[in-house]
Amino acid sequence: MKAIQVTEYLKGPEDLKVTTVPTPTPKPHEYLVAIHAAATNFFDLLQIRGKYQNQPPFPWISGSEFSGVVVQAPSSLPDGRIPKYKVGDKVFGGSQGAYATHIVSKEEGLKPVPKGWSFVDAAGIYVTGPTSYAGLVVRAGIKAGDWVLVHAAAGGVGLAAVQIAKAFGATVVATAGTQHKLDVARSFGADHAVNYRDADWAAQVKKLTPKGRGVDIVYDPVGMVAESMKCTAWNGRILVVGFAAGTIEKVAMNRVLLKNVSVVGLHWGAYTINEPEMMDVVWEGLYKLFDSGKYRGIGYTDKEYVGLDSVGPALKALGARDTWGKVVVTVPQDAQSKI
Ligand SMILES: NC(=O)c1ccc[n+]([C@@H]2O[C@H](COP(=O)([O-])OP(=O)(O)OC[C@H]3O[C@@H](n4cnc5c(N)ncnc54)[C@H](OP(=O)(O)O)[C@@H]3O)[C@@H](O)[C@H]2O)c1
Description:
This is Enoyl reductase (ER) domain-containing protein. By secondary structure, the protein is α/β, with parallel strands linked by helices. 29% of the residues lie in helices and 23% in strands. It folds into 2 domains: 2-125 and 298-336, Alpha-Beta Complex (Quinone Oxidoreductase, Chain A, domain 1); 128-269, Alpha-Beta Complex (Quinone Oxidoreductase, Chain A, domain 1), CATH 3.90.180. NADP nicotinamide-adenine-dinucleotide phosphate (NAP) is lined by residues 42, 127, 131, 152, 154-158, 176-177, 181, 221-222, 241-246, 266-269, 321.
């Protein structure tokens, strides 16, 4: 098969190369999936440079989110369970090695492509959808009528959060760093949009809320907790999702007390170990939103990235903060025949 295999740490995405490697053989309880689209993540950039928390032993295939078609399915699963997917089923998932024409996966790492969704859009759900759903619904207890501030609202988890918050009947204030990204956030349902590069952005957000009381929930994948407290309502919940700005904040605890706020963390990846039963609840909730049309794909559409050769340019654009939503690379069918 064709794949982007990493044999030593690289300077950057421009050094990624597509080569021919053996197609992986699934173990008896595993699936083989022909990849039709692979989504990029910022951590791919860290991983190829050797700077990520999870560094597989060399050689390894880059990429971790994909969608495609089952080409080999197990005949049985441990504990006598019947396999959920059969050959020809469209699936998406997450596991190491997505920048390739084929990938092996356990059933737990796969989900069915929502009805009517493209491979491009499906490739970008696996991380963003459940992160934002678990964050807003399970951790922050979102309810109709809440005012929700979504930071970096045009990013991957941000656009998921905007749609989920709207679906639960909230009023959404989106922040982003450019007018184009603010327009994108609005096109996915945000009611208000504020550029957080403005020095007075927190005052602008506060002014939008009823009687200037502030927002009930702050969804923060950037690292803006301290500033956000200036526009958080009494009893507000601040959801710590990530640190896209690159700095881990240290927040003065007296402000948490004075504002009567809860600061809650969310670590979606760790639910597999700590609370696996909640994962089904989250995915069930998400599929309801997909099926009702309240949540649509967030694939980046300003530019198309076609073929594994374009993974490097796609990652470069992502790293330059030039993109919105999920930057997805399509893996054309003719690449599949070159196994
Ligand atoms: N807690 C969890 O379980 C979990 C799960 C998934 C992801 N995350 C984390 O959530 C964060 C966002 O993930 P994502 O997939 O949405 O990423 P993304 O699509 O790359 O979006 C990140 C956004 O952050 C904003 N940003 C602000 N400062 C930035 C900076 N210095 N450099 C780059 N971007 C900056 C950018 O928007 P503007 O240009 O508009 O500022 C960008 O759109 C990441 O830190 C990720 O690790 C956490």
